[in-house]
Write a structure and sequence with these properties.
Organism: Lactobacillus kullabergensis
Radius of gyration: 16 Å
Number of strands: 7
Shape: globular
Mean pLDDT: 90
Oligomer: single chain
Protein name: 1-acyl-sn-glycerol-3-phosphate acyltransferase
GO molecular function: acyltransferase activity
Domain Phospholipid/glycerol acyltransferase: 34-144
Low-confidence stretches: none
Keywords: Acyltransferase, Transferase
Distance between the termini: 36 Å
Amino acid sequence: MFYHFIRPVARFIVWLLNGHLHVNHKERIPAGNYILAAPHRTWWEPILFALAASPKEFMFMAKIELFKNPLLRFILKHAHAFPVDRKHPGPSALKTPINGLRKGNYSLIIFPSGTRHSSEMKGGTIAIAKLSNKPIVPVVYQGPLTFTGLLKRQPLEVCFGEPFMIDRKIKLTHENEAMLDNKLKKAWDKVDYEQNPNFHYQPK
């Protein structure tokens, strides 16, 4: 219920601040639940991705420190976020999204690098896709990387790539995970180039 309330509020705020959210290749999104996997470039990407892929509802990981604030904890929990300790991730970091995807309630937004400005892929995304048997949909954001740029109403571009499955028979060895991580990175590069051949991400 809260999610249904907060989504149009978020959409209005994005429109008020910027007014230029462009969604590209939404037709590539598969039916059913899926995993939206993106390189992490700004703190507002989860909001834009959730708006771009609506009416689907999403769950997402949030660092456990954010749940210490009572008001923020209320908002996050009712927006389908679940806490993850980045230093010591427990079994719930995998079980919670896998169960959510399997039960058919929500899809998942995830940033395999874990934090902004990092290109190193953390474990989890491939395992979640394999164990839940749900497709990975590459998605990228191109647009302002600072709040000032957002207020200058620079265009916000969200572009979806082609979904792909992780073979349930594949063993998640270090080599296989590295290969699949590289496949995802190449998918991001392809979507970035497709959206704008001159685009080059430069962390602010």
